[in-house]
Amino acid sequence: MIGQSEDWYSTNSLAKRVRFKTTSHFPIYPQRPGEKDCAHYMLTRTCKFGDTCKFDHPVWVPEGGIPDWKE
């Protein structure tokens, strides 16, 4: 089994499943429907507060943010 993973030959069917990695290099920010949009996130698609930010971070914001966004 040189260069082969032991999982491939295992009788455990879960060990043989392909493990997908996320292709996005963006962090996931909290979704808070009903709250105001995070102004910095809307402009840059980044937020220094991360999970602790109290504002909404919509998933539809394009890569790089919306440069001329105003609430």
Automatic annotation (TrEMBL):
Residues 32-60 form the C3H1-type domain. InterPro entries: Plant_ZF_CCCH, Znf_CCCH, Znf_CCCH_sf. One of its GO terms (molecular function) is zinc ion binding. A zinc finger (C3H1-type) spans 32-60. PROSITE patterns: ZF_C3H1. Keywords: DNA-binding, Metal-binding, Zinc, Zinc-finger. Pfam families: zf-CCCH. PANTHER family: PROTEIN PHOSPHATASE RELATED, ZINC FINGER CCCH DOMAIN-CONTAINING PROTEIN 64-RELATED. This is C3H1-type domain-containing protein. It comes from Salix udensis.
